[in-house]
Amino acid sequence: MSAPDDAELARLQAEAEAAEAALKLAQAKAALAAAQAARAAAGGSAADAGGSEAAAADAGAADSEEKTDAEDDIPASAPRNPPSPRNVTPDAEAPASAASPTGPLDADEVAAVVAGYTFEGATLDLGALMNTEPVPTAQIRIPLAMMNRHGLVAGATGTGKTRTLQGLAEQLAEKGVPVFAADIKGDLSGVATPGEPSDKLLARTQAIGQDWKPTASVTEYFALGGIGKGVPVRATVSGFGPLLLSKVLGLNATQESSLGLVFHYADANGLALVDLSDLRAVLTYLTSDEGKAELKTLGGLSAATAGVILRELITFADDGADVFFGEPEFDVRDFLRTAPDGRGVLSLLEVPGIADKPALFSTFLMYLLAELFEILPEVGDADKPKLVFFFDEAHLLFKDASKDFLAAITQTVRLIRSKGVGVFFVTQTPKDVPSDVLAQLGSRVQHALRAFTPDDAKALRATVGTYPKSGYDLERVLQELGTGEAIVTVMSEKGAPTPVAWTRLRAPQGLMSPTPDPDIQRAVHASPLLAKYGTAIDRESAREILTAKMNAAAEAEAAEEAAAAKAKADAEYAKQQAAIAKADAAAEKERQKEYDRLMKASGGTSRTRTTRKAEKSPIEQVLGSKATQTILTSVIRGMFGTGRR
């Protein structure tokens, strides 16, 4: 390892001094608060006590006003009960002298948090520690190099998960890391437009030590199958694979295995499965008279199961899902682009058009992630990720998933880290993510949870049990968090979890509402990817090949049937001719017999034995008569003078 230069040493020294100053300030505040509490406990003057109460009331009012006003842009904070001076479990109460009326953490715990979030390398800033009020000197961060160790952003609806996602995405892109995120509600598109400052927003950001300025990120818009304004993202059925397709179709384990056999048959016979019509053509062929023999060679695939899969595919296509499959197939490497100025491109997948197809949406995202795993090389531990993939509405992915599907997800999440890809699941509660997947996550940003039902309370206790021990009564704090606040723990550069920190999160620097549609359309038309993916291609695939094969078979069968019919007709004709000839011969024989009988009966001879004299013609009869002969003799004699004078 090369020795650091002067600039690097100066930077490290400055960070160390800043961390030390922050630690001393936190310790001084905590000591002052402890002294005030001790004095009050010892019987301080009523004026002092009243002054302390007034100060606390003013601070609480200011904090409340900041939350209800400044957080309107995030959106507004929900009402909540003020935290207790010391949120600890009953069996771990601290002595009164150590209690701090300003927040749930004492000086030592604040110092531990500051130290736990002080890192050597590049970081992403999440926000400032909350100890009733923000502590701007105690910044909560995530090491950039640890973003490929995956993470979870969870919380009830309306608690600020989308803004957390937007803030992380903006910072990643600013540091040259490409980002992919699914824009479920359409409001993430604001990252492409500079944010709009307001007094409320600036008051909030200043309170947490954020140097806020409006900034737009380099953004590319995509849409599944072209349903929406973005560049179309399509996949071939072959690329999607039987496992993911079975999840979308809701097939059981037997049907899933059978669908795998169909894919194997298509691959072995050179039948390209580009869209759903190709897969339907293969299933139709295998269940037809022409394909029954080949169906038997597939072993476990029965005609009944093939029929079930075919019916599900038809229903799936009728719902409009066939537009997501086709060519040109999207190359996921196009998600790994950076802008000319070195910033990462933020790729937003627009999905409001398929809100009624949640299983397809979530499974399509899993397909993209699996494609990244297949094509990217191993990179090991890098200074920053090659891509960070935000998986919004992650609970849809795991709902009704088969064991094989969950195993595939777990393996992908476990191994894709070494490809330089980080995955953040965004959902409502950690229980939405299977424990095997949850175990692979290094960073957690937990927004508020609600406990309105016994099931909610059970989920809340389960969530609390997954956190390291801390000075917080997490079961209470997680219900008291305001919008834009979260409980955070991340993976440090050494691979160890950081202390649990109640954090007021930074505000995004892009627009916190959707970018206007005309701006999005201009960006899409200017994209170099539109020429590559904008026009669908329909090449020869399984449907055309099998259609031609079945047509040829039908034509051959028709020709064979015609030839057989002609041969049959010819044979029948010959038979009839032979019968006619035989009948004629028999009739002739009968006539001859009758004639012979009649001749015998009349005393004549059989015409078969009598030769009749040939009759002379009229001319011969005239020339042969005696009169004619006499006349001719006289004429000849007169002409030649031979007659007597």
Per the CATH scheme, the topology name of the domain at 127-230 and 337-534 is Rossmann fold
Largest sheet: 12 strands, mixed
Named at the architecture level, the CATH assignment of the domain at 127-230 and 337-534 is: 3-Layer(aba) Sandwich
Q: Count helical runs.
A: 21
Low-confidence runs of at least 5 consecutive residues: 43-101
Region (Disordered): 40-104, 599-620
InterPro entries: HerA_C (IPR033186), P-loop_NTPase (IPR027417), T4SS_component (IPR051162)
Biased composition (Low complexity): 40-62, 92-101
Keywords: Coiled coil
What can you tell me about this protein's structure?
With 645 residues, the protein is of the alpha/beta class. Among the domains are: 302 residues, Rossmann fold, CATH 3.40.50; 131 residues, no CATH class. It contains 21 helices and twelve strands. It has a twelve-stranded mixed beta sheet, with helices on both faces. β1 and β2 form a beta hairpin. α1 packs antiparallel against α3, α2 crosses α5 and α8 runs parallel beside α19.
